[in-house]
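Appendix B. Chain record.
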Amino acid sequence: MLRCKFLGKGEGIELIGVLDETTCGQIEKLLVSYKTGQLRLDMAGLQELRDGGMRPLILASKRLKKAGGDLVLANIPPHIREFLHTEGYDLLLTLA
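Structure tokens predicted for this chain:
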């Protein structure tokens, strides 16, 4: 289960729960609406992140970078940061 919570104007989105192939549709619907600017994803409440959940993040990052913005992953729990580094996603995404 994944819960997405808006953090207020300009503050981004908080992800809570599990982001994988079964829940990535939820975040994909939100991310597709961001076309420009910088978007911050607060991952402090993310319990698990799997390869199947990465597609929406990578696509949003590419789209925003092309428009001069960025997708920033913030407050990343240590086990998720390790996953991102081990799988090479830290080379594709901006980690804060």
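Further analysis of this model is presented in Appendix C.
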